[in-house]
Amino acid sequence: MKLSDTRGHLFSIAVAAGLAACTHAAAKPDAAVEQAPKQEETKAVEAAKPVTPAEAFHAQGQAELDKALEQLRNVSVFFEFDSATLTKDAQEKLTNVAGILTAHPELKLRVEGNADERGSEQYNLALGQRRADAAKKYLDNLGVKREQITSISFGSEKPKATGHDEEAWKQNRRDDVNAQKDPTPTPAPAPAQK
């Protein structure tokens, strides 16, 4: 037997073995295709589960909290030149903020005082702090818990408007309200003893 005949036979055997292996191997569907029906089944089972009253209460409470946070987003109160006295408009906005905070004691609020660019850095920081403290005191007088409110001054470091005219300065003489959920949960009250 010649070498070329041997190679030909070996090649034929290898091809035949390869074909035999391919025809006997069962086709496997994609893993993603297999998982899709399982995920749909899981969702269907979860949707069919009855919601407990506690879960429904929690979901409703979370929805209310999300709505309260949304109402507190982008709230700013504005001040006159070189003043930390709350305007009538500022008092109305802060009254709405107080209503939300008293209804949701799990919310924390940071009042951020700001000033326009006129004045020294030190003066503007002090003015921004007086403005933030004025809003904090007003909220405290409306019944918001003191531990819910903090105040900080950014002076002229966080301008809302970047111009150098009265319109820009009006936008920068402000307090911004920054609300968030308290990361430390309030402990539940202890049950009354008989």
CATH third-tier fold name of the domain at 88-181: 60s Ribosomal Protein L30, Chain: A
How many strands, what sense, and barrel or not for the largest sheet? 4 strands, mixed
Cα-to-Cα separation, first versus last residue: 106 Å
CATH-level-2 architecture of the domain at 88-181: 2-Layer Sandwich
Q: SSE string, helix = H, strand = E?
A: HHHEHEHEHE
Shape: elongated
Radius of gyration: 34 Å
Mean pLDDT: 81
CATH homologous superfamily classification of the domain at 88-181: OmpA-like domain
Q: Which strands sit side by side, in order, in the main sheet? A: 1-4-2-3
Number of helices: 6
Q: Helix proportion of residues, in percent?
A: 40-55%
Give unreliable regions as ranges.
Answer: none
Strand fraction equals 5-15%
Structural class: alpha+beta
| CATH secondary-structure class of the domain at 88-181 | Alpha Beta
Beta strands, count = 4
Descriptive overview:
The chain is an alpha+beta fold and 194 residues long. It has a domain at 88-181: 60s Ribosomal Protein L30, Chain: A (2-Layer Sandwich). It contains six helices and four strands; from the N terminus they run αααβαβαβαβ. The protein has helices at 3-24, 31-48, 53-72, 88-103, 121-141, 166-172; strands at 76-78, 107-114, 149-155, 174-181. A four-stranded mixed β-sheet has the order 1-4-2-3. α4 (88-103) crosses α5 (121-141). It is elongated, with a radius of gyration of 34 Å. The model has no long low-confidence stretch (mean pLDDT 81).
